[in-house]
Amino acid sequence: MALEPFQLNQIRLLPSPFKHAQTLDAEWLLSLEPDRLLHRFHKNAGLPPKADNYGGWETERGGGRGLGHYMSACAMMWASTGEQKFKERTDYVIDELKRCQDVKGTGYIGSVEDSIWMQVGEGEIYSTGFDLNGAIVPWFILHKLFAGLYDVHVYTGNEKAKSVLIHLSDWAYNQFKGLDDEQWQKILACEHGGMLEVLVNVYSITGDMKYLEMSHWFDHQQFLSPLSRQIDSLAGLHANT
């Protein structure tokens, strides 16, 4: 007897504490304003922001991570509930990101300044742990965007999200393909989220081997090398890298 995975949109919650929690989550997601989450993306693309930025982490040098989380959450909530408002939210965000991408013309979209990525791509790399060339966890932030685009495509069927994701991936390939493994290990000293996983996901929806090649840029030898020798050196390390 074979086991087959089921899709998120094949499940509906019945009245229960889980349904109650889902309802509260849905209400909170709809209370957020996409244009506020898009503030830094519009600004970095040279477009006038449509709304003020949110506070907290969104105003710091590490701002911009919230949009990717929001895209994933709305896409999954649409799959889980069928509520059209979540599909409308994700479609709107993708349209705005496509507009930013078209204006910039490089494939890059994001809240991190282009100058940071240019320095890194040229091999000028420095980090004190939670920053990379002065930007707070830029790969971690970029991972949330990659994942949000992937989730919107997979859970809502938005083909434009896939196109934006591929162009963003191609930008990353062209920007960083000249770096060697030693330089990548310096980069990976700064928190970088799930870039390895999401690039494998990009490969899974394109079949293009270069994205699988890119995923190995994020093989963090500080973790993997000891484990390959049956040495557990994970205790005390930051778990969310």
TrEMBL record:
Residues 11-241 form the Non-reducing end beta-L-arabinofuranosidase-like GH127 catalytic domain. SUPFAM superfamilies: Six-hairpin glycosidases. InterPro entries: 6-hairpin_glycosidase_sf, Beta-AFase-like_GH127_cat. GO terms for biological process: carbohydrate metabolic process. Pfam families: Beta-AFase-like_GH127_cat. It comes from the Bacteria. PANTHER family: PROLINE-TRNA LIGASE (DUF1680) (PTHR31151:SF0). This is Non-reducing end beta-L-arabinofuranosidase-like GH127 catalytic domain-containing protein.
